[in-house]
């Protein structure tokens, strides 16, 4: 005897224009990383894909480098030089939330 069939729940997906689902940009991020020559380029590409998908005002990627203390700001969006420096200093400050 066969188990009863269940219909899959259909989600409302727009058929016109660009997708509003951020997961639609995952393939672009993967392709950009696969085609990048170095870590900086890879993370810049990941950030660009995230910005395209999520439209944040500001974004940043930090990495842990075993050769340096603390986290290193490696890619950012929507931050000027002074803001990048301030954010990097705040991340290194253990008393900063």
Description of the structure:
Helix content is 39%, strand content 13%. Helix 1 packs antiparallel against helix 2. It starts with 25 loop residues before the first helix and ends in a 5-residue tail after the last helix. By secondary structure, the chain is an alpha+beta fold. The mean pLDDT is 84. The chain has a two-stranded antiparallel ribbon.
Count of DSSP H/I helices: 3
Question: Which secondary-structure class do the elements indicate?
Answer: alpha+beta
State the total count of DSSP E strands: 2
What is the CA-CA span between the terminal residues? 60 Å
Low-confidence stretches: none
In the sheet with the most strands, the strands line up as 1-2
The percent range for helix content is 25-40%
Largest sheet: 2 strands, antiparallel
> N-to-C SSE series?
HHEEH
Average pLDDT rating = 84
Cα Rg:
20 Å
Portion of residues in beta strands equals 5-15%
What global shape is seen?
Answer: elongated
